Amino acid sequence: MNTAHVSVAFTALTLLVNGCGLSPQSPEPGATTPPPDARHFTFLSHLSQNPAVHSVPLVLKPDPDVLQHFPPSDHIQPPKDVVTVYLPVYPHAQPVNPVPGIGDDGTPLDADLVDGVLYFQSQDSEDEILGWYTQQLEQLGYHQDGRGETGQNGKPLSYFYDFTDVNAAPGNPTQAPDIQLGFAPDEGQGITRFKLKVLFIVTPERPRDTYLPDDIVRVVLTYGSTTRTVTDKTWIQRIVTLFNALQVSTPGISAGGAMAAGGPPKPVEAKFYAQDGSVTTVTFTFPAGVRIGDVSLSGTAELTKAIQSVITP
Fold this sequence. Notes:
By secondary structure, the protein is mostly beta strands. The protein has two domains: about 200 residues, no CATH class; about 100 residues, Immunoglobulin-like, CATH 2.60.40. Helix content is about 15%, strand content about 40%. The chain contains four helices and 19 strands. The strands form three sheets. Strands 3, 4, 5, 6, 8, 9, 10, 11 and 12 form a nine-stranded mixed beta sheet that branches. About 35% of the residues are buried.
């Protein structure tokens, strides 16, 4: 069973803590409306227009376990953006109250995480429900990338399955939500209880002055006492494209597959020269650290390898 996972990105850690997340959210008395500058993210909304599949919208909120580890402060604030995910509902399944016995793959301990859970029950078997959701989620661009179980005294009690967008790194839901399907222990009553847990990390908006211009003509890389100058247009354009696609790093965030690439321990200073002579300085700290000015970005394995190809023999 995958009960804990630790991944490193730059100098930050993402930990997984066991928990069942949140129950379905509905407006509470005294609940505040989103601030005017809140961004709105909506995923899988086209499900609501498909008459063949019943779907429900789930509004994700900051996770209580995460809030305990990252209490609001001057430097860390819970996400204020509104994240809504539409989820397919198994035919004839009925909503039920939270079922504590249903396991899942844990909650990323990230200050910008929002999540939510829906609970259902059905008279169909676990295999039938799993098969239906696997098919539905595949049609939505998801694939099953993991499974686990909870147990007691060596006896399995609850099984759960992880689904990730095919274009996203597993365990790093910053571009599309991760979806977990978990089942309650079989009580032999002909009823299957299950839950859908959704997780998403809302990365802050990247400042405009952290992007590289398109007219870079020269890059000077300094690593220790070694300096390399690159004027190859193809390499420069690739680096600029990869760099401008990076997201802002947040407390606890993981860069997912970035650790697949190793690298020298010292930082690499890169000076990007534009046609007008202006210079932008970026510091790369491997395996995936990227910093421009006072802003840290989440690096990628692809960008790391591209820089390595120049500074290493």
